[in-house]
Amino acid sequence: MISITKIFGFEAAHAISNHPGKCRNVHGHSYALHVTISSDQLNEQEMIMDFHDLKVMVKEHVVGRLDHALILSRKGELAEEFANHTGKLTWLDREPTAECMLSLIVEWISPVLPESITLERLQLWETTTSYAQWDRDQAH
Ligand SMILES: [Zn+2]
Known about the structure:
Blueprint: E1 3-14, E2 27-39, H1 51-66, E3 69-73, E4 89-92, H2 98-109, E5 117-127, E6 130-135
This protein binds zinc ion.
């Protein structure tokens, strides 16, 4: 199987409200998102998908919603404090850990992929040494 991967960067702030340590404070990351897709067949240009088309799609449906946003759990202890926040805020049903953000990104990308394309893997890097990974094979 051949797959292709495109890497995206975005800046965002979050807080893990039930974290026992410093991660409960609002803080930022320069996230890197690695998006890997595959297909049984190549298109007319002998590609799985044009990297440009993948870029446009992921920027519209994922990066645009998260870049320079504050990402919080609507059930977390900061929900009330930021309820009237007028800046860019993305609410999650769960804590905005890299793991939970991956689940959300899968929900955002899967419906907009062309039928012949399969989302194989996502990696969300919070730092240069820490990332969470989602794989289609292990998805449930
Ligand atoms: Zn963090």
